Amino acid sequence: MEKTLRELADKKTFDAFEKTYIRKASEKMSVPFNPKAKCPNCYKDQVMVLLAKIAEVKIAETPKKSISKDQFILKEGVDIIWRGIRVNAHTLTNEIARKMISDQLFKFFAFMPDDNK
User: Fold this and answer.
1) 62-115 pLDDT, tens digit each
2) Domain regions of the chain by residue span
3) Sign for the pseudo-dihedral over CA of 54, 55, 59, 62
4) Dist CA 45 CA 8 (whole Å)
5) Is-above-0.85 flag for pTM?
């Protein structure tokens, strides 16, 4: 369904079959759709609404990343240069974190494994 909707999103006009498909897809996804008789963009707008709904469902179904008990976690928004290395949530490794702890930089961490507290 998503592939077909993406193809329809690129079209400027829709034939009767495509309009029926959009109405059925809206019904199947429980998304309200009441096209007006002389609305030139109603179907195009509805395709975008349906694609947004699919994206919402995908995000909701994505499993949350589990945190292991031996993983260091920086506080929200930490982005520093330490020893010439940029340290943030994307670049932090356990090795870098242990070196930061040895330099007494506890204040940057939201979570540290028990053996490092």
Assistant:
1) 666 555 566 888 888 889 898 888 999 888 888 888 898 888 888 888 887 765
2) 2-61, 73-116
3) positive
4) 11
5) no
